[in-house]
Structures
1.
Amino acid sequence: MHPLEKKIQGLLRNQGLIRQGERIVIGVSGGPDSMALLHVLAALQHLLGIEIHAVYVDHGLRPHEAPAEAALVEARARSLGVEYDIRRIDVHGASAIRKVSIEHAARDLRYDALHQVARDRRAGKIAVAHTADDQAEEVLLRLIRGTARAGLAGMRSMRDGIIIRPFLTTAKEKLLAYLTDKEIPFALDSSNAARAYLRNRIRLDLLPYLRTFNPNVDETLRRTAIILQDEETVLVRLTEQVWRQVVAVDARAGGLPAFSLNLELFLGLDVALQRRIVEKLFLVLENRPDFQKISRVLDVARTGAGGARLHFSGGLRMKKEKKRLSFFYPQGKVAARGNLE
């Protein structure tokens, strides 16, 4: 067994990323990382008692390269005896309709496609090939765009109980060595060199510059993400405990959701917990939180007069009363689907 295969076998078992008998959908672009993932999981599937299914997602962005990539993935999947699917998505159309960047639309639609295949194939997990190098890039990307503490924790080895990242602690150079050892072909995505994309500029320009200050900056960023993930787990638990003490769920006319914060208890919290409670309120009420929204709520809670109101996108309202802050939608607003407990 190759050392990389042995490492991933132990990691999958020790971290509980898969269960025996599960079907695993693998996102395979034809690039070096995902081709390594396909071959490693193919080598391990009988040892682990799993079944794998490869999926190539054509984003419609590189019509001159995508057919060759899809053919390569299909050929390798067939040679390994692995089932294969191709899914096509309209990234340009989604970007225009949703008013988001090409990068954002591509990511969302790619995961939508993988989730659909997982549902169709009754797969329990979706494996993607993010590496330790990708983790360093992701931490910097989130820092540049602006994020809370949880965002700086980067990607996790498992997300939402279905997305798994077996290579997240493995450097890309180890994957390239594996491909060389096994004589596995792969494709190179020309868009990875396009500086129009922020992630590419981070990889091609920013990280090399930071390495002039600290040659081990990639590892420093990865360690920071691990530390923040561990601390975030504790903070999430603490937030849940405080939530149960401070937040009440109120029924409103028409069955619309409403929440009230006990103002005295809320103002007695550290500001970090105040922010986390308000952020969770926005999320449960399906209203995207950001620093400005949260700050407005905290300002009114601390200094606003009784009866002060705030209006947010989507119709969400907040009202300050003598002993509480109320968050609600006016009658006629569709109820939120989030967890209200």
Note: Residues 334-341 have pLDDT under 50 and may be disordered.
2.
Amino acid sequence: MRARAIALAGAGVLATWVCLWGVTPFADHLMRGASPAVAETGFNVVVFGAILLLAWGLGRVAGVSWRWTGFARGAAVGLAAVLLAVGYCALAGTLGRGGGPSASFTLPLGLLVVLVQVTAEEAMFRGHVQPLLVRAAGAGVAVPLTAVAFAALHAVLGGVEPVMLANMLLGGVLFGLLALYRGLGAAIGAHVAWNGVEQLGVGLDPNPGIGPFGAAIDLDLSGAALWGGTTAGLNGSVAMTLALLAAILFVVWRRPV
């Protein structure tokens, strides 16, 4: 039973990597010539839609059930954490107004893209891989090990700076604990809130500038690298590190007993 659980968890991670490498060129070709917003939407729906289907299929084989509870609770944690990180950057003097355009009509489309991408990632890592590793080795091993796989995925997607990798690892731990204690919905809620606010709310990803869907407010980070003043932005800052650590401590403190 333990060996089967580990094998199925590994199959989920491997399937995600194969999907990224195999489906990405097809999605790029399919969206060639489209507007930036349409291209980004199509790319994410194709690639992460495939990952979501893989997570569902593998979960059925493994007998893993998804608890969709806790979305609002998780979203509150994610929102508080990202606002805390932005506040740290403001105190450090790296936060300022950008020169991007005002909010675009494509913002709702951007939120849909965030929801699809996040749901696929969480379904695979916290909905499939982590529960199987919990069966095999217990939560104390499963949560950090799944977070390592999650961070490695983001490293492949371009996050190779040490602070950024550490933040992806901490983010994986936070989402893993939320899924463990409150359900998969809580992990999705926290992840959606963080990515949605960072990208579409305050325009800090990408940094500088804004993404293809625009942002409600265009803020940029500049100056000290450790406080977000690089192209990695908030994701490569110690502000994010501190905020994620605070969120993890809060989730552990408020865990069900």
Note: The longest strand covers residues 95-97.
